Amino acid sequence: MSTVNLKDVQSVQSGMKYRGDTSIRPPQSLDDELSKREAQQKEARKKLTIYQHPIHVLSLFMSVLSEYTLALCSKCMSEPLIMIVVIPITFIFTMQWLIAPLLQVPIPLIQHCYVYVEWILWWLVLGILSSIGLGTGMHSGLLFLFPWIAEVCMAAATCHSLEFDTFGEHQFVCDEKHVEAQSTVTFWGLFAKVYWPSFLWAAGTAIGEIPPYAVTLAARRAGKHDEFSDIQQDIGKNSKSWFNRMKLWMITFLEKYGFCAVLAFAAWPNMAFDMAGIACGHFEMPFWTFFGATFIGKACIKINLQIMFFITMFNEKTLNKCIDYVENLGFPSISDAATEFFENQRHLILNDEKQTNKQTPVFKVIWMVIIAIFVCMFIASTISVFAQQKQKEIDDKENERW
Q1: Sign of the torsion angle spanned by Cα atoms 25, 29, 35, 37
Q2: What contacts 79, CB < 8 A, 6 or more positions away?
Q3: Contacts within 8 Å (CB) and 24+ apart, 351-357
């Protein structure tokens, strides 16, 4: 005959919640239920997307946005070096957008500074957007930087010189034209022409890798659950998967070699570099060790190799061979559309309005649609990720009270 625990009867009679009475329930049972609860919350967060729960996701995102904005403003106000950069930029934008329109008089010096500041921020921000977040990057290299390098190469091949602007009102319009036999275009001349925007973009990609590192480092120092723990769990569940074995190798390599490992992973197009940042944060690697290696790898090594590759690929002879190859494959309409697009671009570069097709080329329309789709997907993905992170904070607080 089974015996009944008197404490069990008393707790039921008094309406006491069974889970809270540790004298009745073994601690191991509490841990098991907490793990189960966290697993359920994790699965629920995966379904928390702007497509499935738009109102809830947007409310969480706005909460995160307000917190980050206040934190950023507070950080900027407390750092003199940041203020030295922010104040002149704010002054230039204020003069250009507010004061000049009110006075109805252009200010040449402000306009000149504004064009350069806008150009610098454009490439820097695109670089940050390309790598910021956990897998939510906008691939701005494919969408903006590499097509821009192609435009520079096309302008050089059309003008047979490098005397043209790459930004501003007269971008890609020949200031100096030569015949092909007297061309002043060289490989290293093209390299220098595209270097600084490419460098700024690459520097932005290095800056965009800071958040995963910083968030994991803060969680680690606070003794909280971090993203690295989830990665370890995923590896443990399916250790035989080649992808998980690669992750395990990356983690071991980072822990063993530190700076050199980060540099090696940053110096080539590594889709899994977010994981490297998370691992570095978990191992409490010093900030300048992590960021220095990331910056050198991305902005000093990888981008130079990418520039050389794309200058070679966007060479006029290479492009003509590609068009002929597409035509030989049995797609003459695509070949004709590409030829029309390139010819139209050449006439624009030569500033020949008579020969320029006034209709928007099919290739350009398709590319604009592709960019619009990618931007919308990036925005939706970013909002969902930030909402999931906020929901995780809420879940963690509830679990602590639980």
Answers
A1: negative
A2: none
A3: 351/173, 351/174
Q: Per-residue DSSP letters for 245-264? A: HHHHHHHHHHHHHTHHHHHH
Residue found by looking up tokens 């977040």 in the block: 133
Q: How far apart are CA 67 and CA 52, in angstroms?
A: 24
How many Cα atoms within 13 Å fall on the side-chain side of residue 361? 21
The whole-angstrom separation of Cα 30 and Cα 402 is 10
In this predicted model, what pLDDT tens digit does every residue of 275-333 receive, in sequence order?
888 899 999 999 999 999 999 999 999 999 999 999 988 887 777 777 788 778 887 87
Q: Cite the beta strand spans of 229-368 per DSSP E.
A: none
41 or 347: whose pLDDT is higher? 41
Cα atoms in the Cβ-side hemisphere of radius 13 Å centred on 308: 7
Q: Cβ atoms within 10 A of the Cβ of 229, count? A: 15
The pLDDT of residue 360 is 57
CA 158 to chain centre: 33
Sign of CA dihedral 317, 323, 326, 330: negative
356-387: string of b/e by CB count within 10 Å (b at 16+)? eeeeebebeeeeeeebeeeeeebebbbbbbbb
User: What pTM value is reported for the model?
Assistant: 0.76
List 171's β-bridge partners, or say none. 165
Q: What are 113's two structure tokens?
A: 């500074």
> What is the phi/psi pair of residue 293, to 5°?
-65, -40
Cα–Cα dist 127/122, whole Å: 9
Token pair listed for 64: 């995160």
